[in-house]
What does this fold into?
Amino acid sequence: DPRFNTRIDSERGFVSRNLICAPLTSRGNQKLGAVQVLNANSGAFTGSDIEFLEKISTHIALAVDNARLVQS
It folds into this structure.
């Protein structure tokens, strides 16, 4: 994908073979960021991996949103 930035791999000597990414969306549907997972152990990410990332990103977004509420 031409949008993938290879600079970090080059600087660190890391090899990104594959990745999945999920948005962090707050209660008000505001985008807080994203979670990115690199290099599946099995060589390729599965549907179960994607489903897990989608679920965990919901929990992460909720935690971030709660932390922001406490700080304000």
The first helix runs from residue 7 to 12. Helices lie at 7-12, 47-71.
